[in-house]
Design brief:
By secondary structure, the chain is mostly helical. It is built from four helices and no strands.
């Protein structure tokens, strides 16, 4: 297990049981292991993803410096 995932799980242990179950369900769905159910994007999420693909095609991507700044902003 990576250190980041281990940190996330440790933090989740402090949450109420209901929230822990919600997080567990999300993880299982993302991995396709929740009765075969895979996370389904909302129409808004699909539109955002399509726009992101177009931005990448146009070369509109973040620089390494911008990515580092974003990670630093969230303490990662």
């Amino acid at each position: 297990m990576t250190k980041l995932l281990d940190r996330a799980i440790e933090a989740a242990r402090e949450l109420p049981a209901e929230m822990q179950d919600e997080i567990a369900g999300i993880l299982l769905r993302l991995m396709g292991e929740d009765d075969g159910a895979v996370y389904q994007l909302t129409p808004e999420e699909e539109a955002d993803l399509e726009e992101a693909d177009r931005e990448i095609e146009r070369g509109e991507i973040a620089t390494e410096e911008e990515v580092r700044a974003m990670w630093a902003k969230y303490g990662l």
